[in-house]
Here is the input.
Amino acid sequence: MNEYSEYKCWMQERKAAIPNTIALCLATLCADQDCVFAMDELRSGLSRFAPLAKAAAGKLTFLGTIAHLNAEHGLDLPAQKPEGFVIRVTDVMVIIAGQDKAGLLYGVHRFLMLLAQDKITVGIEAADAPSVPIRMINHWDNCDGTVERGYAGRSLFFDKDRFDYDPQRIIDYARLLSSIGINRLSINNVNVRAAAKLLITEEYLPELAKLAALFRPFNIRLAISINFAAPYLLGELATADPLDPAVAAWWCERTNLIYRYVPDLAGFVVKADSEYEPGPFQYGRGHAEGANMLAAALKPHGGQVWWRCFVYNCTQDWRNTKIDRARAAFDHFKPLDGQFADNVFLQIKHGPYDFQVSEPVSPLFGALSETRCLMEVQITQEYTGHQIDLCFLPWIWTKILHFDTGYGEHSRIEELMGTRIQGLVAVGNVGLDRNWTGHTLAQANLYGFGRLAWNPSLCAAEIAEEWAHLSFGREAAAEIAGILLASYPTYQKYNAPFGVCFMVEPKLHYGPNVEGYEFSRWGTYHRADRQAIGIDRTECGTGYTAQYAPQVAAIFADPALCPEEFLLFFHRVRYDFVMKNGKTLLQNIYDTHFEGCDEVQVFLKRWLALKGSIAESVYESVKARMEKQLENARQWRDVINTYFYRHTGIADQSGRKIYD
Ligand code: GCW
Here is the structure.
């Protein structure tokens, strides 16, 4: 690789000549109009490689839909699932064929990625298709240009309550997203406040239409987050009651208007009755009634509703040990299974809490049998280090995807993808920072999300190596992938221990604050005292374990079987409880915190050793972040260890320094 550019992410220039055996002749034989855009993408993609003149004597290239190429050119390309493609390279030709227009584009991008990894050879036949139809990014961008939980600069789309963007930057973003298969994008925060309420009015719709037009060729359909109370917030009705015919009619009309501007809008993301956002509860109505009312308005346009299940009591009394926030999504939505219209998708956070560092998979995914849903993850690192600390998230996402819900056959999450689970959605991590993601290595999280949404069977190591190779070239790839792969377990070690959640600085959510959320209204307690810590969520406690299939519940409910990373999530455990390695819980808390911090030091050393083998700019910026991460890890180590030492008075067996 020659020139490295943080801006280009995994689409770096590679000026080495393409081997003659695969040089392309870009006089495509396919006359299909649908090919023009994919053709241009291929052409511009190839310009990142050898000068085209060199390739002129190469092979014939066929680009088109599978049906068209088979019919017109006597080929025998196998049909694929929607959005799928076939890549075939023979002695005399290169074929990139899509099941449909979208598949063709994805085929072109895969071809370019394989080429960049030197994986295109004569004889190759690669066919692939996405596992799920919905692969979506949710932006939490506000119209004033701020980004809720954003760590990579201001919004790509908005500033000062207007649409405000650089069209070229949007096109570059769309290209990055389509190269990893993302096909839906919601542009505004799920907390729809201030000017965002007006996005569905004619003051903003013409601009929304222009933005949608930039994403459209890349097979990305825009979506918007709406405020459930819009009918009265916009001053047009006195109520937003979903069963009031005037409200339903209002949404139909409003939706018709929106679709006049954006005929292929993907739909509405809705955060209702959640953290003070309005919703059907206000009118004594249920969530199915609310969601179905919006679904009816969207239906004639082919639009969908993504109804978030992040519904819980956020005004809890910490003194009350009977309420358990972890139960909330299941308690609210399981009874509604089967009551949702077919264009409603329940959007469920991957865990029962809130994107915490160590939490089990939500029981709702297995338990819903009649309702389509999406799994929501967070690429933006709200609780995982704010894109200051390195934390390679595909590592944890693959574990989530491997989780066996225990309901019926083929019950692992990855097996439910494409059936009950119709998509993966993630809160995005990009902003106006030149490198998109603040921490350059956090680009790997965006990349990994797209790859896993497409193919949930990929493993974390494959993703890390692929990304590192594409971004930094073959030489540095193995070492960078190695650092990435170690980063999540390390973060877990210096963070809150063994499945305790929310030991973070309130509101900010970066850095330790052991009791920051302990006496709050958010339902986020660990209840540490001098003897024990954690919440009993078994039948003897809050009963949360019973939300899982019986055989899964039995594992979580038994402290001897429960995965130790969730021990304190499911159990209240004494500090002298002996863990699998024969040491007490307390000693394990000390050990993991010393180790986690030491491991960050090792990352930094490994990174310093890469000097000279990667571009100086990225070397320096990552180094600066790792130095900050080390400070953060030290702070976590000392705050956590001191807290437990003060509570127990028991010293570290290895005699390491714990402040008192
Ligand atoms: O965890 C919380 C975040 C909020 C966010 C909310 C949600 C958009 O702290 O910032 O609001 O989750 O997912 O709705």
